[in-house]
Amino acid sequence: MPIVVVSAPVYIDERFQGVVEGSLTLGSFEQFRPSIFDNQGELVVLDAKKQVVFSTLTSHYKVLAQLSAEEFSQLEGNDQAIMTTTIDGEQYYVKVYLSQQQGWYVASLLQRKYANLVAASAWGQSLLLIVLVILLPSQLIVANFIAALTNGLIAKAHLYLV
After folding, report:
1. In this structure, how many other beta carbons lie within 10 angstroms of the beta carbon of residue 112?
2. Partners of 98 in the beta sheet?
């Protein structure tokens, strides 16, 4: 896994004191990989020149590969946030974020079939809740109607019996 290292000399009063170093293990981007319930999404990080810095889709977006304008356009997706190309036969919902300070791009991808299942599940739960909300008051109205009708019949029967 690639690593980015930056080092610089440290001077105090024009006297060399040592070297300070910082490093970034690009594999640590893995922790930002999106997920939808039990299904892992994919993550692609590009630098300002649209060169792949990190990718969980290593067979399609190789680290240090330069994306062409067409490849980047396909990664961005269409108006419905769906990639215009498939990866390994799968369609993805994609959202590309641009860091204004560094000019880096971060693309989060979720397989369309899993995202659609989650959406369908949410709609199903909402529909069930709507049905319950409609049925409960209607049951109360019917129960009140039956109770009023029964009370009226009991009152009439009581007049005949007395």
Report:
1. 17
2. 105
